[in-house]
Amino acid sequence: MLSKTKYKKMESDNYTFFVLPNSPAERDIEDIIKIQEKCFSRVCEILKHETDMKINIYFFNDPVSCGKSYNVNADPEEEIIINTFCYYPNNIHATYNEQIKTIGHHEVAHLLLFEKLHREPNILLNEGFAVYCDNNWWRLNLHKWAKYIHTTSLIDIDKTFQSVDYFRQNSVFSYPLVGSYCKWKINKDGIDEFIEILKKSCSQSDFHREELIEYKEFIKTIFLSDDEINNFSEVVANYEGRAGRGQNGGFQL
Where are the domains of the chain? Predict the structure, then answer.
């Protein structure tokens, strides 16, 4: 169990923050509070959701320490590197240092969506909604990510929507793809229709072939300039080391 004794506790309207003394998170806490409160308000607005939830955020100085909190029983050789994760109903663990600042909408979206639905939805739509709330992936436009993925066959789009294992194995590129899908779906049909789908969708098989065909036709309409293609190609070529669990598109201070 995570010890709270070494943490400093700080409160805001919708959060309780636990920061290590003399850490980057403690130094930047005023800015973090402003960002997180805006994120909370925005996700509630998107979901049309009113709540009394107060989220606990525990900050770690590095992904290894964050990973240890994810699996406290792991042997040292089995340690996993995690930048951020959440667990229901209202807890987030996040890495915050000079290079990695995993704050923003993503984990907040998971928690508020879970509360809205009273259960965890289909993993693809769950992650897609969280990335939609981020509104970018590595600071790049979600629909343009989808266009690049489609143009280069970086990953198999149909397989991404049909196989949980494939989705997870290719999360670095499947996340912006499903974020684009959810953005398209919400813009097309509205958040109320999207919520109804979330309430009914428990597995990848819930995706209708016709819906995926329509989405892929939409992707074809997105324009990518040569400079944008080169930029994406450079990002893809240099992604190694950023592919760990919890790499969302969140804020940077």
Answer: 8-115, 121-237
